[in-house]
Design goal:
This protein has about 525 residues and is of the alpha/beta class. The chain has eleven helices and 23 strands. The strands form four sheets. Strands 1, 2, 13, 17, 18, 19, 20, 21, 22 and 23 form a ten-stranded mixed β-sheet that branches. It is elongated, with a radius of gyration of 24 Å. Bound molecules: zinc ion (ZN).
Length: about 525
C-alpha cells in the first residue's frame, strides 16, 4: 500500500481548475441484494505451504523486492515456479511474465538547491535537507523554481487553534514554506486529522490556488516518514513507466519535503518558538537535472480456465503486488524492508488460492485471472501497465479483487474498500456479494467500513492496485487488514503475521471469486 500516492491526487483535487476524479458519486438505487450460490466444492487452503512460501518470500534473500531490481525479478520467478508446480496456465506476454518497461530517474550532480540572503548563499543537501516529489499518478512536478521564500506557518485556517495562516499572505510567484503537521496546541485527534494525506492535500491545493511558484513542506510529526520515503526514492532513483508509455501528464509547480531544523534557512530564524507567517527575506533557486536509465520489471499473470464455454471468456481478476520498498538507507542494523504483510501476505495468499483451485476437481464457470503486480509502491505502475496492456480483453474482466496487507491486526477484523468509495456505485453489487459470502462463513469477519468512503482522510481507496482497474469502470473490492506500526518499516517481518487470519482472509477472497465466477450476471451496478 502506498501513502504518498494520495498527496498530489488530493492536492490537485483541491485545486478548482484541475478536477482529477469524478465528482461525488450520484446516488444509486440500492441494488437488490444478490445472494451468492454457494460453490459446491470449496477446496482447502494449504496453510503449511502458505507459511513456507511467505517465510521465504519475506526473507532477506529478496532484498525488499524493489521494482526494477534483480530482487524483484527473483520474486516474480519465485511466484512463477509455484504456479508451474500447481498447474496454472501462463497468461503473461512471455509465459507467466508480463514485461513492464520502466525508467529510473536519477538525480544528476548538477541538481542544486540554493538559498540566498543578502548575497550569501547556503546550499541545501539533496536527500538530507530536501527531498523533491517528482511525480504522483499522472502528474509531474516542475524541475525548477525560484522565488522569494514566504513562510506560511502551518497553512491552516483553524480558529480553535488560533491559526489563520494564509490570511493576508501574498503567495503569487513565491516559494511557500509550511509546516506540514499539526501545531503544538492540537490535541491528538486533531493532530491525526491534520497529518492525514487528505488534509495535507487541501493545504497544498490552497497554496497552489494562491499562485505559488514552488512549495516546501516541512516534514514534522508523522510526515518524517514521508520525507524518508521520498529521500529513499531520491537515493535509488524514482521509477516511472518507460518513455513514451505514459499518458501525457499535467505539470504542477515544484513540491518538496524539507527536514525541519532550527537554523534552517527555509524557516524563520526564531523557529520553533516563532511560527508566525512571514516573508523570510531570502530567495530559493532550485534546479533538478534528471538522468534516465531504462529498466524493466515484471507482472506475473496466470489463468485458471473456467468450465462454461461462454462464461469462460470472461474473467474474475485477483490481484496483489509482489514488489516492496527495497533496502532502506541508514535504517540501523536491519536495513531490508521485507514487506511480509505489505504485500507478501496478499501475494502468497493469492498463490495459496491458485494452488487450491488448480487442485480442485470442479472448475468455476468463468475464468480466474491472477495478476501479481510490480511497481505498486512506486505509484501503481504494474497495474497501470496491465490495464493499458491487458493480456485478456479488459472489457472481459468482470471484477477485480485486490489483496494488499491481509495478515495483521485483530483476528476477526477486516476492511473492505470499494463498494461505497467507488464512484457511481460501480462496486456496490460486488460489495453485496462479498458481504453475503462473508456472512455465510463458519466464522465471519467483522467488516470495518470506515475506510470505504470517498471522503476518508487516509484516502485508502486511491492507495493500491485496485484503483487502476476501478478507473476503467471495473467493479473492485479491496481486502485489507489495515495499517500498523510496522507499515513501510524494516520491522514488517514474517514473525508478526497471523497465519490463521491470513488463511481465513484468503479463503474469503477465494470464495468471493468463486461466487462471482459462478454467477451468470456480471456484478454491475443496478443501472
Ligand atoms: Zn506498501
Amino acid at each position: 500500500m502506498r501513502r504518498l500516492a494520495t498527496l498530489l491526487f488530493v492536492m490537485l483535487g483541491a485545486c478548482s481548475q484541475t478536477p482529477v476524479s469524478d465528482p461525488a458519486p450520484a446516488p444509486v438505487a440500492a441494488p437488490s441484494t444478490p445472494t451468492a450460490a454457494p460453490p459446491t466444492v470449496v477446496p482447502p487452503i494449504d496453510v503449511s505451504a502458505l507459511r513456507a512460501d511467505l517465510t521465504l518470500f519475506a526473507s532477506d534473500a529478496f532484498q525488499g523486492r524493489l521494482a526494477g531490481t534483480p530482487a524483484a525479478r527473483r520474486a516474480a520467478e519465485f511466484i512463477a515456479e509455484r504456479l508451474t508446480a500447481a498447474g496454472l496456465e501462463p497468461a503473461g506476454d512471455s509465459g507467466f511474465f508480463q514485461r513492464v518497461p520502466l525508467s529510473r530517474q536519477v538525480f544528476a550532480p548538477t541538481t542544486k538547491f540554493l538559498v540566498t540572503s543578502r548575497g550569501r548563499a547556503t546550499e541545501l543537501k539533496l536527500g538530507e535537507d530536501v527531498a523533491p516529489i517528482l511525480r504522483v499518478g499522472d502528474y509531474h512536478t516542475q524541475l525548477s523554481t525560484e522565488g522569494e521564500l514566504v513562510f506560511a506557518g502551518y497553512a491552516l485556517s483553524v480558529p480553535q487553534l488560533n491559526r489563520n495562516d494564509l490570511a493576508g499572505l501574498n503567495l503569487a510567484g513565491k516559494v511557500v514554506v509550511f509546516l506540514g503537521g499539526a501545531p503544538p496546541n492540537a490535541d491528538s485527534a486533531t493532530r491525526a486529522r491534520l497529518e492525514s494525506p487528505e488534509q495535507l492535500g487541501q493545504r497544498l491545493g490552497a497554496i497552489l490556488n494562491g499562485g505559488a511558484a514552488g512549495i516546501v513542506i516541512m516534514a514534522v510529526g508523522t510526515l518524517e516518514d514521508d520525507f524518508d520515503a521520498v529521500a529513499s526514492e531520491v537515493a535509488s532513483g524514482a521509477l516511472e513507466l518507460g518513455p513514451g508509455e505514459q499518458e501525457p501528464s499535467r505539470v504542477v509547480p515544484m513540491v518538496m519535503f524539507a527536514r525541519p531544523r532550527s537554523g534552517s534557512p527555509l524557516l524563520p530564524s526564531g523557529w520553533p518558538a516563532d511560527d508566525k507567517p512571514q516573508a523570510l527575506g531570502r530567495h530559493l533557486t532550485a534546479r533538478i537535472t534528471l538522468g534516465r536509465a531504462q529498466t524493466e520489471s515484471y507482472n506475473v499473470v496466470a489463468l485458471l480456465r473456467g468450465r462454461d464455454p461462454a462464461l469462460s471468456r470472461s474473467y474474475v481478476a485477483l490481484g496483489a503486488h509482489l514488489d516492496h520498498i527495497g533496502v532502506q538507507p541508514a535504517a540501523g542494523r536491519d536495513s531490508i524492508a521485507n514487506g511480509a504483510d505489505d504485500d507478501g501476505s496478499g501475494s502468497m495468499g493469492l498463490v495459496a488460492i491458485a494452488r487450491a483451485l488448480a487442485a480442485s476437481p470442479e472448475r468455476p464457470r468463468r475464468s480466474l485471472l491472477f495478476v501479481w503486480h510490480t511497481g505498486e509502491e512506486a505509484g501503481m505502475l504494474g497495474s497501470e501497465w496491465f490495464v493499458t496492456h491487458p493480456t485478456v480483453p479488459i472489457d472481459s474482466v468482470v471484477a477485480q479483487l485486490n489483496a494488499d496487507m491481509i495478515g495483521r491486526n485483530a483476528p476477526d477484523s477486516l476492511m473492505l474498500v470499494g463498494p461505497r468509495a467507488a464512484p457511481n456505485g460501480q462496486s456496490r453489487v460486488l460489495g453485496a456479494l462479498v458481504d453475503s459470502v462473508n456472512t455465510a462463513l463458519p466464522r465471519p469477519f467483522t467488516i470495518n467500513r470506515e475506510w470505504d468512503s470517498p471522503d476518508h482522510p487516509e484516502q485508502i481507496y486511491l492507495r493500491s492496485d485496485h484503483y487502476s482497474y476501478a478507473k476503467r469502470g471495473i467493479p473492485i473490492v479491496f481486502y485489507t487488514t489495515g495499517l500498523h506500526e510496522d507499515y513501510h518499516k524494516v520491522t514488517d517481518e514474517v514473525s508478526k503475521i497471523d497465519f490463521d487470519k491470513l488463511t481465513r482472509v484468503s479463503e474469503l477472497i477465494m470464495r468471493s471469486a468463486l461466487a462471482v465466477a459462478n454467477r451468470t450476471e456480471r456484478p454491475r451496478s443496478g443501472r
